[in-house]
Structures are given as C-alpha cells and as structure tokens.
Design brief:
Helix content: 40-55%
Strand content: 5-15%
Strand order of the largest sheet: 12-11-10-13-14-15-16-17
Structural class: alpha/beta
CATH class of the largest domain: Alpha Beta
Shape: globular
Number of strands: 19
CATH architecture of the largest domain: Alpha-Beta Complex
Length: 696
Amino acid sequence: MSDMTNPDEVVTHARVRLLDLPDGAGTMALITIDNDRDHTRPTTFGPGGMASLDAALDQVAAMTEITAIGVTGKPFIFAVGADLSAIGSVTDREIIRQFGQMGHNVFRRLGEMDVPTFAFVNGAAMGGGTELALHCDYRTMSWGAAAMSLPEVFLGLIPGWGGAWLLPNLIGPANALEVIIANPMQQNKQLKPKDALRLGVVDALFESADFLEQSIRWAAGVVNKTIVVPRPEPDRDSWEAIVGIARTMLDDRIHGATPAPYRALDLVSAARTATRDEGFDAEDEALADLVMGDDLRASLYAFDLVQKRAKRPVGVPDKSLARPVTKVGVVGAGLMASQLALLFAKRLQVPVVMTDLDAERVDKGLEFVRADLAGQVAKGRLSQDKSNRLSALVTGSTDKAAFADADFVIEAVFENLAVKKQVFAEVEAIVSDTCILATNTSSLSVTAMAADLAHPERVVGFHFFNPVALMPLLEIARAEQTDDATVATAFAVGKTLKKSCVLVKDAPAFVVNRLLTRYMGEVIKAVDEGTDIAVADRSVDPLGLPMSPFNLMRLVGPAVAFHVSETMNAAYPDRFHVSENMRNIVAAGKTAIWVKQEDGTFIVDPDIAAMLVQGDTPLTEEQVRTRAADALADEARRMLDEGVVAEAQDIDLCMLLGAGWPFWLGGITPYLDRSGAAERAAGRRFLVPGVASVPK
C-alpha cells in the first residue's frame, strides 16, 4: 500500500478513553478520531489513518470490562472519508482494490464486536465518514452537524467502504438510493440532521451544546435495554421494482453518460440477497474499476475548482478597497428582481427597497418575497421571528428617490440597452457619488450602459443565474472604466451572498451565455438545414448534460433565447446563428417545442412542425454533437484570446456552476481536449493543469 501514501497526509489518530456510563450501564470505550496535527483540515482516512483506527480497535477488543464502544470526531467534524488526493494519483488497479479491502476490514470490526457499538456523529460526516458510522450498531447525530452524505457518485466513484450494502439493508432501497444516487446527482446535495433521522440513517438527534453527554446517556439506555431502537426489515419484495424505477430515471437523466451511478445502482440491487462478504467484495471491484477510469480524475479537477478556485477568485482587487453596503436598491419588481431582493435581505440583512412603474407591480414583488418566506417557515427552514424580520427589511416604492441612501443599486429590468441606460441615468441623479450601480444583464454591454454617466467607474456587471437562490455562480463583469473599489465591493457583496464569483471582462454575454448561445445556435442551425428536431435534441445525450437543447430553451424561454441570439449575432455575425424558424416560433407565442400526448410521450408541437422551413441536408446525432463541440472549442479559445477570463479554469468553473456542466466531464475545456474538438476547431488543446488520464 506504499503507493497510496500521500506525503501531505495528516495521519488520523484514534485515541481511546474509558467512560463510566450512567445508570449502572457499565464502561464505554470511546474512540475519538482526529487528525490533531492540523485542526483546520477535516479528518480523512489514508493508509496511516486507517492503521491508527485499526490499532485503536485492537486496543478496545482486548478490554474485557467494557459494555459498549463509541466513536466520535474532533470538534465540528466526524470524518469525511478517503484521502481523495492520494486515490486520484494511483495508476495500479490492485492498489485501489487493496485499499478498499483495508477500509472494509477495519470498519467492519465495529459491526462485529461482542458489545454494542455507537457512532456519535458530532459534525460533518461524508463518504467514508458516513460509512464508518453505518458499520456501528447505533448512531446519534448533533443538530449542529453541518451535513451527512455519501457523495461518491458525484465524483465518479461508489460508496466503497460498505455503504452500498449496509445502507439499503438498514433503511431499504428507496431511502438508500436517495442518499447514494439522487442526492449526489443534485449537485451533491447533503443531508441535514433532520433528513438523516427521517430516512433512518441515524437513530437520535441531540443539541450540539451537550451532544456527547446526551449521546452517552442515550447509549446507556440502549445498553440497559430501557431504550429500544426499532429496526424494521426492508421490503425485499418491492426491492427490484424500486431499483428498476431508479434505473429508468437515471437513464432519462444522464443516458448512460458515466458509469458510477449505474455501478452504485447494481450494488444496491445486489444488496437484496448478497451476504456482507459478497457485498463488500463487489464494492472493492467496482471501486478499483472506477478509479482507473477518466471520470474520477475529471471529477477531482472539477471538485478542486469549486472548492478552491471559486473561493479564491483570480484578478480581484484587494478586499480592503471594498466599501460597506448598508442599504440595497433593486430597480424592478418582477420575478428576477424579487428573487434578488429576497436574497440580498437574507444574506446581507440590510434594508432592501424595490421600485417599479406602478404600485401593482411593486405589491406583486413584495408578495413574492412574503410568500417565499412563509413557505420556508411552513417547511421548518425558518423561524416565524426570523421571517418577520426579513420581511420587514424589504420594502417597495414607485419613486426611485427611495434609493437616496443606498450603497448598492442593482437593476433587473427588461433586457434593452436604452431602457437600462435610462434607469441608470435616473438612479445616478439620486444616489451618492460612491453608490455602486450594478446590472444583472445577461448579454448587453456594461460599458455602453455606463458611457453617458457622470461616474461610469462605479458601474459593474452583476450577472446572476435563475433560480437566484439555487444557482451558485455570479459573473462579475468589469467594464472599461470600472474602478478597483467598485470591483472589490462587488466581490465582497457576492461573497456575503454566498455565491461563487468569477471576474469576467465586459464582453457580449460574458462566459456562460456566450457559450450556451453558440452551442444552441449550432443545434438550431442543424434543424434549419433539415435535421429532425428529435435527432438534434438527442445529439448531446451521451454527455449527460442537465437538459437537452430544446428543454433548455423551454426553461430560458424561446423569446429570451432568440433575443440573446440576435444580440450575439450583432456582435459576431460570422459565428452566431439567428434562426428564422425561431423568429416565427417566438412570433407565434410558443413557449415550448414539445407537447405531451395522452400516453405520456412527447412530440413536436404540430403548430411548430407546420411552420418549420427546413433545408435538405440533415445531420446525424454524432454530426450535430461534433459540430456543437467544435463551436464550443472555437468560442472558448476566442474568449481566452480576448481576455474575457484569466484562464481556462475560469471557463470551466463558470460552466460547472452556471450551466450545470457535469463534474464527470471535468469542466468543458478538458472535455473539448479529450473529444478532439479543441484541436479540430482551435488548432491546439487547452491542457488545463490537474486533469490527467490513467495510462492505458
């Protein structure tokens, strides 16, 4: 296992101490896992950490006087699993298989002791940390624990230390598949403590202030048999039907684009009848296969971008230049503006005022905010008191004079340059000389918006993605005259809003919309030339993108998509296609290409089919996919040459967080390298550091 050793690994120590259980329940051996040489890093398990836990289990196994064994973590962290930085560098399949066996052999000891074992999940538990808890007989969790998950599928792996067998046999296949597949496929969704209890992953929740004391008291009750934890047998009769439904949903979602979720599904399916040994052996083989594939390395690169580069954006002025923001103005009270007002109030917790042309529009925006807050109260995500305070922060007016004392005003009005210029002129006449003027434009020139202002240096692009609360990306566009203080303030605000911010040059459509518009233009052009709409729509299925082209258009809205295509065509007429078919679809008021039939299948809207004017040169799915990939490669290379972003990694980060580009593709530029599109379209590869293939 020497090839698995990471020289940077902070070896996990497992310390043992004896505790007298209350109520005469005997003595507990409590193991605390802690990489105590570095309190800033979550506890992970490499070979050294695994050996440390194994030695601690040897110690407690020799104790004849104990009546229970407990495992807990250092403050705020239980454990977060394997040391992925070491795993991703291994090129020998057998080493990975042995590492999987090591984890199984050590962790399973907790489920095979002569006394009951307890996991006291005091903080974040992810991957192998969650599996460590699952090997114990019982689990408690702190209400203050940040999250619990089995995120391996998100990274191109499977739960490899028992989770794929233990969890379905504990909570049934439906609940297990929610944790193992559904949540990771939703941008690595985490379980909150109440979710872990609802699903049956943990047995009890206790407040964080005295979590360990309460857990030990609860464990004493279990030992004394005054507390009985029900363990209903999973419904094995419907097991395969549940797996079958999950497989269909997975096919609909990713079309076989990556193997990890399918391998995980196979393991859960087999767990219905497999013995523990058989289940663990199957996990070892699946883990070894997947680590040898490209998807893991691509995912690790993407994960590193999101965890590191997104938190340390490139090219940003010193944060000391940022100005305080004590009040925010939002121009507009439509859906996007209302979402922005709610987000600013929740995250900045400062007064936010919305304006619009009439009281009816303003009232509608305020009602959106109140309804959203009420919904969060109803779901238990927000207290009534907190909701009341947030609601009081958001007010409305038909007079822009309400912005007089604002430090930050963002416009979210109709995507028209003349309208936005007029808005900024009106706002500038009211606000202070240092108030930031931000635009949520998705495609228009920020420089042009600021051109006629007395202080163009305080105008900045602040482009959110819809839905605002969920999409993590914020493109911050620096116009030609934007000064450092404005950019620094924009990034400080974006960070407080809990968004991942990327600095972009003021160029048409910035990054995400520019690439998506070019990509969509190629697909639509193929339809105009004679390709069947269904063929064009299926063309990118092998990539496993979140949406097919025409479903994406339905989400954005054909009118918006067509308007952006016109804007981009005006800037780059040789590359961005404007479709007369799309013009006619928008003119007809159509909002979706597909209509649902009585049998549940979808067909092209007959009205749209009747109005299509197509050529006679249809393409195959592969040809459409190749054309779209080549266009993306060409546009990405041009953006780098133009300095729209600092490096290719920023393009990848924007597409991961703003377009849902799958992690297993490793960002868009590594995919364009692997597919050959970069060399075909741009003459050279992007070659971002940190992405490598396993030698074949």
